[in-house]
Design goal:
CATH topology of the largest domain: Beta-Lactamase
Structural class: alpha+beta
CATH class of the largest domain: Alpha Beta
Radius of gyration: 62 Å
CATH architecture of the largest domain: 2-Layer Sandwich
Shape: elongated
Largest sheet: 7 strands, antiparallel
CATH superfamily of the largest domain: PAS domain
Number of strands: 29
Number of helices: 19
Number of domains: 6
Length: about 650
């Protein structure tokens, strides 16, 4: 068979089949050679790709449609601390922090739509530590456009995140410092200081809101003075620092605020520079020294008052240097008069010229100074003429404004007071002796009726110790006190309480008080006396004096009982009983019914008559000798008495 063949030059020729076969073989060989060449290049390309994938500093992770890992490079495994085998076949979200899982699922929805993106994820390494990575994800599709998975490239940004966290933390700390520091800090945000804002302290100082622009160039609502001269906006420290690129140090400003208040501030300002050393703004830090300035003013006024007090004080004041012999630095007129020295004579001398060095209390005073820096005591002093006096001294150590140690000694002549104290001591001793030994009970109560003191006699009469009574009052004591009729004696009606309310004395009140020691009531006669301070109208104390009248009251009760029995005997006796006064010719004082019946007189008729009305005086001698006599009836008839009778003289 023949075939028409067209040559390279375009001519045509008929060839036999055998020639064509040979041509096909040549073509096939060439095609195979090209295929091998392409396969070699593909192999080389894949090798290069594999080397790039394996040697890149990025982690590479390929996942399928279910986010199951199908491939990870060495760097990816190294980043998370796993082997390839430990990662392949697991969900990609298994290695992501739980909080980022929701974001990872949302990104999968984007991959399905062919949307590529980049996101930051926090991964969890095998050892539990965290890895921050910037993940760039790209969707993978097959030849038919079907989604087959995602290619994820991870860049380790842990160091960057840590740096960002550190910067954030430092910024937060700086912001906290700015807001909590007791210093007003302002920031100028431009070279002309037209925008200035401050921290919390600055806002409080300037009476502004947070973030408010306080630049005097823009909001001239405050006035500034320095050394009594008002400043312009550009003369203020922050403006001067930024405009002239200089540091401004320790400027004291008097600020008049919109509210009318004045503040004194002290501070400094410095310029802020950009990366090219150009001024970009300024910063100023100021403290409010208003109170300090006021304190300084008050100190100056105090020093004036101190000088006036020092010169006019009636107490001696001596300023000394406590080092060495306590050299006198200053002395007031009262000290000169007290000690008999002129100021010029004492200045520069030690205190040994005025102290009685033999006084044992002196060393104690010095020891107190060494321990606490201050002391109070009584010392003996020597005048210039050699006489001594007793003085009460109060000494205080301090450091003066120059840093020098000083001791101020204030001395008061208490010689007369000591004499008065001795007299008072003796008086109190006499009073205490009387208080302790007197038979009357004495109780002191305060303005509220609380018992504050009582003497031994009161303890004995009332049956309790002072300790048991202290702090108690008359209120609520009804079950311990009674009236003479046996009824309760309310506490508010006790003499002491009445005296406290009225401010008057209450006298001769009889009260029964239960004595727990004797388990019986003791009867007392009470006088309550209020104690009122001069110039006051209400008592601040009351003292109660009382006598124990229990025995006399019992004797009275016994007498009354005896008189009752005698009255019954007198009235109901069958014998005649006549009571006479032997000093008054036997005047009849009383006659019982039996006597009246016997003598035929009524009691009224007999009372006041002499005994001669009823006795036969002629038989008086017989009375003494024979113990009987004749008695005379009213009718003048005689009654012979032949029995013994009793005559008893009663002493009223």
């Amino acid at each position: 068979m023949h075939f028409l063949i067209q040559t390279k030059s375009g001519s045509r020729a008929w060839n036999r089949l055998s020639t064509v076969s040979k041509l096909n073989q040549v073509i096939s060989q060439r095609v195979l050679s090209k295929q091998k060449e392409y396969e070699e290049k593909l192999r080389e390309s894949e090798e290069k790709y594999r080397k790039i994938v394996e040697t890149t500093n990025e982690g590479i992770c390929v996942t399928d449609t279910e986010t199951i890992i199908t491939y990870v490079n060495d760097r990816m495994a190294e980043m998370l601390g796993y082997s390839h085998e430990e990662m392949i076949g697991r969900l990609g979200t298994d290695f992501v922090d739980e909080k980022d899982n929701a974001i990872a699922k949302l990104n999968l929805e984007k991959r399905l739509q062919g949307i590529d993106d980049t996101h930051e994820f926090k991964y969890i390494r095998k050892d539990g530590s965290h890895l921050w990575a910037l993940v760039s994800s790209k969707s993978l599709f097959d030849e038919d456009g079907k989604f087959t998975g995602s290619l994820n490239m991870l860049t380790d940004i842990t160091d960057r995140k840590q740096l960002e966290e550190q910067i954030h933390r430092q910024a937060e700390e700086l912001a906290t410092v700015m807001e909590t520091t007791p210093v007003a800090i302002w920031i100028g945000h431009d070279p002309q200081s037209h925008i200035i804002t401050g921290n919390r302290m600055a806002n409080e100082l300037y009476e502004t809101e947070e973030g408010e622009n306080v630049s005097a160039n823009v909001t001239p609502v405050r006035r500034f003075f320095c050394k009594d001269r008002e400043l312009t906006a550009d003369e203020l420290p922050m403006q001067e620092a930024s405009l002239n690129d200089i540091d401004v140090r320790n400027v004291e400003l008097d600020v008049l605020l919109p509210s009318g208040k004045r503040r004194v501030i002290l501070g400094s300002a410095s310029p802020l520079h950009d990366a090219y050393e150009r001024v970009r703004g300024s910063v100023g830090a100021f403290i409010d020294i208003t109170e300090r300035k006021q304190a300084e003013k008050a100190l100056r006024e105090s020093e004036k008052r101190y000088r006036a007090l020092f010169d006019k004080s009636m107490d001696a004041i001596i300023l000394t240097d406590p080092r060495g012999v306590w050299v006198v630095l200053s002395i007031n007129p009262a000290a000169c008069q007290m000690l008999g020295w002129a100021e010029e004579e004492l200045i520069g001398k030690g205190l040994d010229v005025v102290f009685d060095m033999g006084d044992p209390a002196l060393s104690t005073q010095l020891d107190k100074h060494m321990l606490s820096g201050s002391a109070m005591s009584q010392l003996n002093y020597r005048r210039k003429d050699g006489t001594t006096l007793t003085g009460e001294i109060s000494s205080t150590f301090f450091i003066d404004s120059n840093g020098e140690p000083r001791m101020v000694n204030i001395i008061r002549d208490i010689t007369e007071r000591k004499q008065a104290e001795e007299a008072l001591r003796q008086s109190e001793q006499h009073y205490r002796l009387l208080f302790e030994t007197m038979l009357q009970g004495v109780v002191y109560q305060d303005a509220n009726g609380k018992i504050i003191s009582m003497n031994p006699a009161a303890e004995r009469i009332l049956g309790k110790t002072t300790a048991e009574f202290l702090g108690s009052s008359s209120e609520g004591e009804e079950h311990y006190t009674i009236r003479e009729d046996g009824s309760p004696f309310p506490g508010l009606e006790h003499p002491a309480m009445v005296s406290l309310r009225t401010g008057r004395e209450v006298q001769d009140v009889v009260m029964g008080v239960y004595n727990p020691r004797e388990n019986c009531y003791r009867w007392i006669n009470i006088n309550a006396v209020p104690i009122i301070q001069p110039g006051e109208d209400k008592p601040f104390q009351v003292y109660t004096l009382f006598n124990d009248i229990t025995e006399s009251k019992r004797a009275g009760e016994a007498l009354q009982e005896s008189e009752t029995r005698y009255g019954m005997l007198f009235d109901y006796s069958l014998d005649a009983i006549i009571l006479t006064d032997p000093r008054d010719d036997g005047k009849i004082l009383s006659a019982n019914p039996a006597a009246c019946r016997l003598l035929e007189w009524s009691e009224e008729e007999l009372i006041g008559k002499g005994r001669d009305v009823i006795i036969d005086l002629d038989s008086a001698l017989s009375i003494l000798l024979q113990y009987f006599t004749n008695w005379i009836r009213k009718s003048s008839s005689f009654i012979p008495i032949s029995k013994y009778f009793s005559v008893k003289c009663l002493k009223s």
